[in-house]
Amino acid sequence: MFNTEDIYEVVIFSIGDTKAGTKMGKLQLKNTNDNTLLNCILWEETLNRFDSKIFRTGNLVKIVSASFNEKFNNCLVSALELIKEAKLGLTNSEIEQYWTKLQSFISQIKDEKLHNFVYEQFEQYAEQFKIMPAAKLMHHNYIGGLLVHTVECVEFAKHNMEKFAYKTNEDEIYAACLLHDFGKIFEYTIDTETGLIDYAPNFREEWISHSQYGFTTCMNSGFKRVAKMIAAHHGRSDWGAIIDLDQKDLEPELYLIHFIDNLSAKFGKISTRLLEQ
């Protein structure tokens, strides 16, 4: 159920097509009082009355008019009130600060061939990488989110490698951290005016996932161990991993990349509203 007095946070929003050929909005809201989730439907005529900015993840809204459908356990919304706009993501200054950190880690890759490969990837796609989210919903889903997540992963790796008795190849681990999610610049789109994130329409026609993109790019360039780390970073095949970490006798580096990626995702700021706190 819903209450017109409650304030809700926008969790996710998407637009799809109905069988009749009209547009339908799917909106998930989180009650800020008890964190319960409310799934909402908006028909095309309702969508046309709204500025799409109202559906930005992290926005605070009130439900002005709606009806609850017991059968489908969702809410048919006809009117919303915007209470507070969420932050779109990182400011330009914050983006440049994170970009400087990322560049400093690239510079620490001593192997010349690997350094040049990683540097060229980021140099070629710098503008896309700086603004892209790390996910549509799960973590770092805001402008600059992929940049934040990537820097966090390299920082986690650096702090952990200093403690290991096992000798690791720091160059390869840095490269895997930097490139493990690189394919997301092609997998997602983000509207820099509204902050709305969606899947790129043609990505799945060419690639299975961003992991496959990173794995293939590194393999084709001869960096097989980096490719293997990227292939395993989701941990389990049902989570999208090319290499499942349930296999025996895998290199410790594969677990390292998975765990630091997961740690950043779990503790990363999910809502842009939280960036302001």
User: What does the average pLDDT come to?
Assistant: 89
Number of helices: 11
Shape: elongated
Give the oligomeric state: single chain
β-strand amount: 15-25%
Estimated structural class? alpha+beta
Uncertain segments are none
Write a structural description.
This protein is an alpha+beta fold and about 280 residues long. The protein is built from 11 helices and 7 strands. The protein has helices at about 45, 90-105, 110-125, 125-130, 145-160, 170-180, 185, 205, 210-220, 225-230, 250-265; strands spanning about 10-15, 25-30, 35-45, 60-70, 75-85, 190, 195-200. The chain starts with 7 loop residues before the first strand and ends in a 10-residue tail after the last helix. The mean pLDDT is about 90.
Topology, please?
Blueprint: E1 8-17, E2 23-31, E3 37-43, H1 44-47, E4 60-69, E5 74-84, H2 92-107, H3 112-124, H4 126-131, H5 145-161, H6 170-179, H7 184-187, E6 188-190, E7 197-199, H8 203-206, H9 210-220, H10 224-232, H11 252-267
Parallel strand pairs: 3-5
Antiparallel strand pairs: 1-2, 1-4, 2-3, 4-5, 6-7
Helix pairs in contact: 2-5, 5-6, 5-11, 6-10, 9-10, 10-11
How would you concisely characterize the structure shown here?
This protein has 277 residues and is α+β, with helices and mostly antiparallel strands. The chain has 11 helices and 7 strands.
Descriptors:
single chain; 277 residues; alpha+beta; five-stranded mixed β-barrel; two-stranded antiparallel ribbon; 11 helices
